Amino acid sequence: MPAKTTAAQRRQAALREALDTQLAALGEAPYSGPDRPSPVLSACVGAVLRARSEGAQPVRSAVKAAVRGTLAELAERAPGHSLEVRVPPYGAVQVVEGPRHTRGTPPGVVETEPLTWLALAAGTTSWQEAVDAHAVSASGTRADLAGLLPLWPSGGAGGYSADGQRLS
Known about the structure:
4 strands; 11% strand
């Protein structure tokens, strides 16, 4: 009897499928890099942002997978419940240690649209640039994500580009 797939395996498979769909829409070959979560997520974010920069409409499933993956990565790196990061319509996470709230909206909220969030996560837009351009709504004492973004050093997660090539 085959083993049941875990939720993490299903999310990873959906991310890979979304990445390959976005790469195909860009006229590129399927992803051939390491099949680990961080490089695949970084590649998906990169492919979505490339589509936007080329004037193409990013593939919705790729945007959704990239937003959800980057929000999960942020929550893992900055656990807590004092700040809610919202990227409608794809997701929201509570992050950053601080006073715990039990009902309603947390004491701090950050909200932005999906492509701005992905640019922040990838480091193609700085936190200050996004705030200055009013592309981010941030309220509360812990609502500054400058110290948590970008999620990866320049060049992508794990040192791999969107096409799976090792970066030097």
